[in-house]
Amino acid sequence: MEKSSILIVDDEAMNITAISQILRHDYTVYVEKDGQGCIDTAMELKPDLILLDILMPAMSGFEVIEILKKNPGTKDIPIIFVTGLNNTQDEERGFILGAADYIRKPFSAAIVKLRVRNQIQILNQTRMIQNLTSVDPLTEIFNRRYFYTLLEREWCRALRQQTPVSLLLFDIDNFKEYSDTYGHMQTDAVIKGVSQIIKSNLYRAIDIVARWDDKEFAVILPDTVQPGACIVAEKIRSAVEKHLFQIDEKSGKVTPSHVTVSVGIHTVIPERHGSYDFKDLISDVNQAVSFAKEAGCNRVCTFMH
């Protein structure tokens, strides 16, 4: 089982060493010595938990947590302050800013272990609930609601790193006619089959597929330029066209049939001070799908300004 990850941030090497020794057997531990290092590592590695000192040079822990809580990619990472500050006002300020817990220095190993374990347990329970509400029950891929969250996260990453993000939308052609001809059970089998074809043709762990609506599937390809996105889209379009849908594993009976998909693509490098955002990207990809439909279906079209 993969260990949970913890980022320890303290400007004193002695404290980093002490906490690392307490936690390293049970967790994957990362360390940073200042606020900016904490922010950079949190954005890049997305640790499960951050143990954050408050009194640090250049940037205090209070300033760090404000920045992390405003960023969509890091706002949900629980943060425990580990500090020598002993007054109630500082502790209250920490909780107001979004801290999950507060450990006072000098700390004991037992307290550190218990506070960390409690936060990891809460995090795992939260993730379990999120998984139950983020997956489409028919296709067992992400649903539309959760896809918005993932797209916003990738958009923020692309904005920060100034890298391209490609969005693809696959629409099953003539879906209503197919459903009227073959019925609900076979339509469900085709939807599941198309989702698996898309999923099986995405080879990077960072690529994301979700069910957009009854007959549409959305794909995020981070750090992918438009020609690369077109190659992926065409490969999937061709695989769907060639696939013979035959057997639904539950019913054991599906009339052999073929379907096709129309695909829309748009690739953007987000502008740091621009008004265009990920919702505009969705709108433009929908327009590209419309281009594909109007051109005769079963084809890949990119968004044209």
Please characterize this protein's 3D structure.
The protein is an alpha/beta fold and 305 residues long. It is 47% helix and 18% strand. The chain contains ten helices and ten strands. It has helices at 13-23, 35-45, 61-70, 88-96, 109-134, 144-161, 175-182, 184-200, 226-242, 278-294; strands at 5-9, 28-32, 49-52, 79-83, 101-104, 165-172, 208-213, 216-222, 261-268, 300-302. The strands form two sheets. It has a five-stranded parallel beta sheet with strand order 2-1-3-4-5, sandwiched between helices. Strands 7-8-6-9-10 form a five-stranded mixed beta sheet, sandwiched between helices. Helix 2 packs parallel to helix 3 (61-70) and helix 7 crosses helix 8. The radius of gyration is 24 Å and the shape is elongated. The protein starts with a strand and ends with a strand.
Keywords:
305 residues; alpha/beta; five-stranded parallel β-sheet; five-stranded mixed β-sheet; 10 helices; 10 strands; elongated
Walk across the major sheet and give the strand order: 2-1-3-4-5
Using DSSP, what is the number of strands?
10
Taken in chain order, the helices and strands follow as: EHEHEHEHEHHEHHEEHEHE
- Poorly predicted regions: none
**Protein structure class:** alpha/beta
C-alpha-based Rg, rounded: 24 Å
Q: Give the mean pLDDT.
A: 92
CA distance, first residue to last residue: 48 Å
Helix content: 40-55%
Regarding quaternary structure, how should these chains be classified? single chain
Strand content: 15-25%
Largest sheet: 5 strands, parallel
Number of continuous helical runs = 10
